Amino acid sequence: MTRRALAAASRLAPLAALLLLAAAGCAAPIQALDQRDTLVVQGGTFEVRFAEVDRHAQEAVQRAMQAVVPELARWGGLRSPVTVRVLPSHEALEVESHREGVGALKAYALFDVVLVQSPRTWGLPLLGPPQRELERLLLHELTHCVLFQQSAARREDVAAKAIAFWFREGMASDTAREASRYASLEDLARFYDDHPGVNPLSPDVELYRREHDVVYGAAHHAFTFLVRRYGEDAVRAMMASMRGGRTFAEAFQDVIGLTREAFESEFRRYVTLRGFRSGRLKAGPMTD
Ligand SMILES: [Zn+2]
Question: What is the 137 CA–ligand 1 centroid distance (Å)?
Answer without folding.
Answer: 9
